[in-house]
Structure formats: C-alpha cells, structure tokens
C-alpha cells in the first residue's frame, strides 16, 4: 500500500479564520457574496475556468444555483484551496 498518500496535518490546511483574516481589509472590493468574475480574480484563475469547474459540480456548497452566479466568498476560498488536500 505504498501508493496511499498521508492525510495532511491540520496545520497544513487553510482554515476559515485564515480566510476571514485575509479579507479583513478587502471587504469593500470583495464583499461576502461575490460574482463569478470576482471569485475567479480572488483565486487567480480565468472566469471561464471557474464557470467550467462550477458546471462540473465543484463548489456546490458555496455557489448559487441560479444566474447570475453568486459565490459565498469565504467558503469558496476555503473550498478552493483545500480541494486537493482532503
């Protein structure tokens, strides 16, 4: 069973308090609910890439099901940066 990866330590994962602290001074530019374009800008990807990931079922717990797409900023950032660390 050499191919099984170890789970990351809790200290290696980004936590909600880290996300909240990071946006403390940026609430005017990135409010708690952001658009598709703002969400993509926050995590540094193209809006089309984010739209594709959303349509593939990623981030369903933090994205609205209707148009226009609305994203819960903190929950989305947490999900985005921890998606490969679960």
Descriptive account of the structure:
With 86 residues, the chain is mainly α. The chain has a domain of 55 residues. Helix content is 40%, strand content 7%. It is built from 4 helices and 2 strands. It has a two-stranded antiparallel ribbon with strand order 1-2. Helix 2 packs across helix 3. The chain starts with 15 loop residues before the first helix and ends with a helix. The relative contact order is 0.19. The N terminus is likely disordered.
Give a summary of the structure in a few sentences.
The protein is mainly α. It is 40% helix and 7% strand.
Question: Helix and strand string, N-terminal first?
Answer: HEHHEH
Based on helices, strands and strand pairing, what is the structural class? mainly alpha
What count of helical segments does DSSP give?
Answer: 4
What is the strand arrangement across the widest sheet?
A: 1-2
Helix content: 25-40%
Count of distinct strands: 2
Mean residue pLDDT: 84
* Largest β sheet strand count, sense and barrel closure: 2 strands, antiparallel
Q: How far apart are the termini? A: 19 Å
Unreliably modeled segments: 1-5
C-alpha-based Rg, rounded: 14 Å
General form: globular
> Per DSSP, what share of the residues sits in E-state strands of 2 or more residues?
5-15%
What keywords describe this structure?
86 residues, two-stranded antiparallel sheet, 2 strands, 40% helix, globular, disordered N terminus
